[in-house]
């Protein structure tokens, strides 16, 4: 059975996703939510923190919790989340198109990016569509010495499911860099860019439990469709 704070979180999330509470509106105050759900302040705060961490609200000092634009997809910066997992939080029709899948001997660039001395590299280019709009371009490079046997079917489903469930490897942590870059002619052909000339690029280096670097990814996003969320705690 779900904890009470999770049930309250789901109740508030349902209201946000159904637009009963619209983007730009404030949630009821903590005191009002305590009365509404017959819950303690600590329970309400846990529910609100879940909404905050998942990118549905933003806390405004002195005003409360404002609902963010649900049409922008929350990309969790601090976590390691596969697109298959991320799409469970999205509304609308979400699909993956495998544009390219190839395996080739590591060149000097890939040896440097993946800390390889030799061996093969998988390059996988996938286009993510939301409501028939092509808005994400993911390019993954994987060390074939660590991860092998990738097929188009696997690429279309989930690389991380394959790595963890089929290969029995444990994905542990990732280093990320976020920049805004001009879209190339090729990227403009592959994505529905509308009038946008820029893309938000998230470069990720992902590691296994033993600190083996197995993947380098460039994930490029049309800027109007995404927000990037993080949860930070002040340490003294």
Automatic annotation (TrEMBL):
The source's domain of life comes to: Bacteria
What keywords sit in the KW lines? DNA-binding, Transcription, Transcription regulation
Q: Quote the InterPro entries the UniProt record gives.
A: Bact_HTH_transcr_reg, Chorismate_lyase_/UTRA_dom_sf, TreR, Tscrpt_reg_HTH_GntR, UTRA, WH-like_DNA-bd_sf, WH_DNA-bd_sf
Q: Which residues form the HTH gntR-type domain?
A: 2-70
What SUPFAM superfamilies does its record include? Answer: Chorismate lyase-like, Winged helix' DNA-binding domain
- Do the record's keywords include Cytoplasm? no
From the Swiss-Prot or TrEMBL record, give the protein name. Answer: Trehalose operon repressor
Organism classification: Bacteria, Bacillati, Bacillota, Erysipelotrichia, Erysipelotrichales
What species is given as this protein's source? Breznakia pachnodae
């Amino acid at each position: 059975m779900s904890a009470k704070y999770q049930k309250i979180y789901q109740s508030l999330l349902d209201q946000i996703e159904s637009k009963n509470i619209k983007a730009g509106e404030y949630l009821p105050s903590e005191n009002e939510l305590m009365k509404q759900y017959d819950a303690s302040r600590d329970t309400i705060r846990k529910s609100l923190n879940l909404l905050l961490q998942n990118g549905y609200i933003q806390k405004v000092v002195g005003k409360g919790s404002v609902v963010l634009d649900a049409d922008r997809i929350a990309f969790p910066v601090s976590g390691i989340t596969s697109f298959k997992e991320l799409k469970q939080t999205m509304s609308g029709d979400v699909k993956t198109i495998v544009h390219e899948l190839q395996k080739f001997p590591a060149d000097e660039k890939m040896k440097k990016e993946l800390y390889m001395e030799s061996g093969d590299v998988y390059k996988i280019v996938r286009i993510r569509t939301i409501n028939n709009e092509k808005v994400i371009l993911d390019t993954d490079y994987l060390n074939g010495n660590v991860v092998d046997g990738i097929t188009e079917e696997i690429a279309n489903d989930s690389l991380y499911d394959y790595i963890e469930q089929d290969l029995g490897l444990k994905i542990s942590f990732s280093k990320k860099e976020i920049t805004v870059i001009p879209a190339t002619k090729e990227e403009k052909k592959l994505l529905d860019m509308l009038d946008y000339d820029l893309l938000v690029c998230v470069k990720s280096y992902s590691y296994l439990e033993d600190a083996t670097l197995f993947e380098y990814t460039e994930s490029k996003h049309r800027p109007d469709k995404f927000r990037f969320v993080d949860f930070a705690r002040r340490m003294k």
